[in-house]
């Protein structure tokens, strides 16, 4: 979909064998810039990128379906840095392509790099930490505070789980709601409760998070 900030619209698209990050003027619809963004993802259910870019301040954070993670200047489209996380972290793509919007924090970005949750630096893409995990799902991570700990809640192919954003430690997980085909819906967090749902007859769950020592 589109992300909107400071009078501009941002999205991902594809042409030929490549994916693109594209910016438009919100008032006129005029294209302002486009930048090539890795190889076009192809499969039997529609080709091209899947994720909505994340905007923070004057930067655009884009995650392509083939694993290309890039940071661009929002006004000009200048690429600050780019890395293919599947190659960088030896991950594997999922059947219908990586689909999450990057979770952007103060100094780092969190994504599931095809089996490993990673935290690259915002400044240059170098790794702060990486945490062994599950095959990626098709949903985006959300930030939450519980027991004084900042955690990212991911819905992977096998479970919903909380990861300490400072070091990648897994704090908790719940697997009964995962269908292991296509977990798509982003978890909804209110207070200390997490609602998560999936299709293929799996259903939904409402989880309550409580602190226990240094764990959740």
Give a brief rundown of this model:
The chain is mainly beta. Helix content is 2%, strand content 47%. The protein has 1 helix and 19 strands.
Structure overview:
The chain has one helix at residues 85-88, and strands at 3-5, 8-15, 18-25, 31-39, 54-56, 59-63, 68-73, 79-84, 103-104, 109-112, 116-120, 127-132, 142-146, 149-155, 160-164, 170-174, 188-190, 193-198, 203-208. The chain contains 1 helix and 19 strands. Strands 1-2-3-4 form a 4-stranded antiparallel beta sheet, with no helix packed on it. With 216 residues, the chain is mostly beta strands.
What's the structural blueprint in terms of helices and strands?
Blueprint: E1 3-5, E2 8-15, E3 18-25, E4 31-39, E5 54-56, E6 59-63, E7 68-73, E8 79-84, H1 85-88, E9 103-104, E10 109-112, E11 116-120, E12 127-132, E13 142-146, E14 149-155, E15 160-164, E16 170-174, E17 188-190, E18 193-198, E19 203-208
Antiparallel strand pairs: 1-2, 2-3, 3-4, 5-6, 6-7, 7-8, 9-10, 10-11, 11-12, 13-14, 14-15, 15-16, 17-18, 18-19
